[in-house]
Amino acid sequence: MGLKYRDIKPLLRSKRHFSAWVGTLGLAVGLIVLLMAVQMFVNIQDLLNKKAPKESRSYDYVSVTKTITNENMGKDNSFSGSDITRLKEMGAIEEVAPVTSNKFKATVSAGSALPFSSEAFLESVNTAFLDTLPANFSWVPGQKDVPVIISSEFLEMYNVFAPSQGLPQLSEKTISSVHFFLECTGPVASQTFRGTVVGLTDRINSVLVPESFLEWGNKYLAGDTVTRTARTIIKVKDANNPELLKYLAENDLHINKDKVRFGRIKGILEGVVAAMGIFGLLVVLLALVLFGFYLQLAIAKSKDNIRLLLLLGYSPKWLAKSFTRRYLPLYFLVFLVATAVVMVAQYIFSKLSIAQGVLSPYPDIIVGITLVVLLLLILLLNSRMVRKEIQRMG
Amino acid sequence: MNLSLHNISPKYISVGERSEIWGREFEINSSDHLQVVAPSGSGKTSLIHFIYGIRNDYEGRILIEGRDIKSISHEKKGILRREKISIVFQDLKLFEDRTAFENIEVKRKLNPYHNEDEITAMAKRLGVTSKLSQIIRTCSYGEQQRIAIIRALMQPFELLLLDEPFSHLDEENRQKAFELISEECSKRNAAMLLADLKRSSFLENEKTLSL
To answer: With an 8 Å Cβ cutoff, are B95 and A316 in contact?
Structure first.
């Protein structure tokens, strides 16, 4: 048929009903909420994962120690080989790295330049578990310089207390230029090394030295050949995994609460955004139902003319298609408005300090896909309903 | 075009033994002209509606080119009504709030057999030229009848169904309308089935059946 919709438009004209406007408004609001939820979900993933180094993205590194209770206080609370093996066998744990600590006394001093001296604890862990691995983080026996990685929290704490102690504050960059004396004293021997902070870590709250240094020191300075592991680091997909938390609690193991809290906050945020998404979807569905009622009403109002057109030989399919098409501009407008709102919101959000340059100023491709899928779905549902209604009249 | 009726009878009226259509077999082929004569209430309009595929409340079978009309989909019925069968309804079925011209044009545009100028030419022949721009409900029934006839002639067809098409026309206008219909059927080599209350003088040499 070479016919155009405008040829029969006067026969199907009906006033836009109140429900059509409410439906349109509902569709726009629901769509904005849904798309914003999708974009927020992507933003949360980006904000919480992109800050971590690439290879550790989506993994949590959690420190595990044995819970000290009144019963086991004073006993050997280190991890045995079988403890480590059992941890490795736990499904939620990807990898386990024992942390070795110093068996000799370590004292840090700044020499004659600064009146500063403090006892220190040293630890070492498999370098694969470090988020920062400077090239010079290695040690061989005979080497006078010992590279050290400290927790960035320690630097923060130092900078808080330094002024009151008459010590200079240090930035992340200048700390590597500060050298200190590391005096290691054991029952067997003593030796003084030159320590240099070569990196900062967000992952492990400790003063880390190369594994080879602690092995050597414990053996030659402390005369201790038995490796005791007071804590281990575990690599897990989700530190908030209930199965993991249950296992750890049952085995009297204690973990870094901050990590779990962080995981919980992430979980809550994701939950809130998911709820927002579901709410948006429900509003969209309700709006579609309302719009559906309006379409039925509009068809019912033009019922006599549609019947007559069918009697004259008009194709039911063509009529349904034409009837649905008259709402296309309205749908496109609603979708355009929703896209514009999400784009503006994302642009503003990406400029906030919390985004820290991690977020893109443009909405994610998933938002676009959601939009296209929804538009197709709405058109499909509407045209099916209109076709059914019109065929019933034939 | 071949239309055959096999023992059809409406489910809702009792059929008289003397009927030459209900419960009988007959067929219409291209260029046949058939007149069905019966008093009011005997089922003339029902017969036309059965053949046009609007109603299914009958027993027996109506075959159009070998296909049972009851089994034809809505979409295929649309094609039949655009290309093979045209109709003048007894109740005219015009768009009340559109002009006479728009009523004809909505059919012509669907599958044009004539160009737009032919509407004016036919209206002139039937004496309704001045009514073309008039809203249909403001026209007299006789004028509306002539508009419905012109509308039916705008498309290609192989069978023309006429349900009391001249009921509100005077003799002169009946004559003019019938001549126009006859010419259009001849152009298309189409069959004609005219249902009326009494035998028409125009078809006195053609086959006449009573319901």
So the answer is: no
